[in-house]
Amino acid sequence: MSKVVRLAHEPSVLVSRLLTLAETQIIPKLRESVAGGPPFGAAISTKEHLKPVTVSTNHKREPPLLHGETNCIREFFLQAKDSRPEPRNCIFFSTHQPCSLCLSGLAWTGFPTIYYLFTYQETSDLLGIPEDVDILEEVFRVRAPGDTDETLRARPLYNKQNKYFSTTSISELIDDIPYKEERHRLRREAERVKSLWEPLNHVFVNRKKG
Is the CB of residue 87 less than 8 Å from the CB of residue 111? Predict the structure, then answer.
């Protein structure tokens, strides 16, 4: 069994590498493969060197379970076992905050460190896709004795730090950077990279309208 690799990169380095990965590898794949579908992608990189191992996009035009994350997991495990790192020695990057299906897939397949660019709220606002939150609320959020509608709504949708994985947004990573100028620079860069999704979002929303 291989040793467990600890993630030792500074937040600023990690953010820069993930944003570059989104721009140079995920966005080109989305432009080629999504064809009007939801512009969701994911990538798996080594923890030690942040080297991409698998980069993928959603294939919901085939079975509807092949979201960006689950398709990336599938492609990762299709590689020969001796040619890929162990999931625990990888970081998983999702362009959009993973839904309940993808969170379960990540837990079952052993990826402990997950980062994402767009939040649930952004996914809903930009793409008109509220199902990520709706499913978590309707299926997994259970009313406890004494809960009111208000206290129920105030509860987190899921446990972002748990024994299976931790999930962190790019925005949260940037907030951890101690230097103000570097935080501001990377916030601007994150917004620039997010803007690359605008044409893809436009095509998807127009297709939804029919």
Answer: yes
* Sign of the dihedral through C-alpha 120, 13, 185, 181: positive
CB 41 within 8 A of CB 67: no
Single-letter code of the amino acid located at 161? Q
- Mean pLDDT, rounded, for 92-98: 98
60 and 37 Cβ atoms separated by less than 8 Å: yes
**Token couple for 154:** 């105030």
- Per-residue pLDDT at 116: 98
Q: Are strands 90-96 and 113-118 parallel, antiparallel or unpaired?
A: parallel
User: Token pair of 198, please?
Assistant: 């605008």
170 neighbors 15 (Cβ within 8 angstroms): yes
* Cα torsion through 138, 197, 116, 63, rounded to 10: 50
